[in-house]
Amino acid sequence: MSNVLVIESSARQQGSVSRQLTEQFIARWQAAHPADQIQVRDLAVDQVPHLDANLLGGWMTPADQHSLAEQAALALSNTLTDEVLAADVLVLAAPMYNFAIPSTLKAWLDHVLRAGVTFKYSETGPQGLLTGKRAFVLTARGGIYAGGNMDHQEPYLRQVLAFIGIHDVSFIHAEGLNLGADFMEKGLAEAKAQLAELI
Ligand SMILES: Cc1cc2nc3c(=O)[nH]c(=O)nc-3n(C[C@H](O)[C@H](O)[C@H](O)COP(=O)(O)O)c2cc1C
User: Fold this and answer.
1) 98 lines ligand 1 (CB under 6 A)
2) Cβ neighbourhood burial of 52 (10 Å; 0-12, 13-18, 19+)
3) pLDDT tens for each residue of 40-78
4) Considering the entire predicted model, what is its pTM?
5) Where residue 34 sits, what CATH number does that domain have?
6) Rounded to whole angstroms, what are the CA distances from 39 to 2, 42, 43, 52, 100?
7) What is the DSSP secondary-structure string of 69-105?
8) Under DSSP, is residue 42 helix (H, G, I), strand (E, B) or coil?
9) Domain containing 44: what range?
């Protein structure tokens, strides 16, 4: 049995294409792996706070010296990090907002890229500690960017996932969604076909 952690980040609940992709992912994954546990964290519903002085203080001082404010800041951050540690499969759903990922997803990443927990500094440089995990990234974009230099989603997410040790990453992009009905239909159909082939 594996644990699958799905992170939703579309600000919309209705009409969201990235949510359609996660819905299909979950249905297919459950059919193929009925014993697996699937957990969904919706960053639009439960937004995570930006990093602040209390959280950084909590990370950087020993537990027995934490102030009450640092303890409180650490509690949610630890939960988010524990969820990633427990996951065998990570699914990130990311609409493209202003050429990049939603700020809610960036805030979540700021919590889970944690020195000493998900990566560590070694004599040979930073080393990812989340080995043996697989990730899927499902994006939704109004325009068409895959492989171009205006795509600040895929290169960034590949880098941060590799930084914490996750190298087995599959990207599925639904593109051209705001370019008219034909493009939208084609972009969505292609992404769904890729998902069906992968899982
Ligand atoms: C605030 C905002 C910014 C956006 N920025 C871009 C962008 O830079 N490039 C793009 O191709 N589409 C952009 N879009 C369009 C979305 O990527 C597209 O509507 C996508 O389907 C959103 O994902 P969702 O359907 O899961 O909500 C933007 C949409 C919003 C609401």
Assistant:
1) yes
2) exposed
3) 999 999 999 999 999 999 999 999 999 999 999 999 999
4) 0.97
5) 3.40.50.360
6) 11, 10, 13, 27, 25
7) HHHHHHHHHHHHHHHHHH-SEEEEEEE-BTTB--HHH
8) strand
9) 3-198
Q: Give the position, in ligand 1's atom list, of the atom nearest the Cα of 144.
A: 11
145 Cβ neighbours under 8 A, 6+ residues apart = 96, 99, 151, 153, 173, 175
Number of domains in the chain: 1
Distance 89 CA to ligand 1 centre (A): 25
Using most ligand atoms within 8 A of CB, pick from 18, 98, 145, 185 the residue to mutate for ligand 1.
98
Q: Which of 8, 178, 179, 183 gets mutated to test ligand 1 (max ligand atoms within 8 A of its CB)?
A: 178
Would you give per-residue pLDDT tens digits along the chain (199 residues)?
A: 999 999 999 999 999 999 999 999 999 999 999 999 999 999 999 999 999 999 999 999 999 999 999 999 999 999 999 999 999 999 999 999 999 999 999 999 999 999 999 999 999 999 999 999 999 999 999 999 999 999 999 999 999 999 999 999 999 999 999 999 999 999 999 999 999 999 9
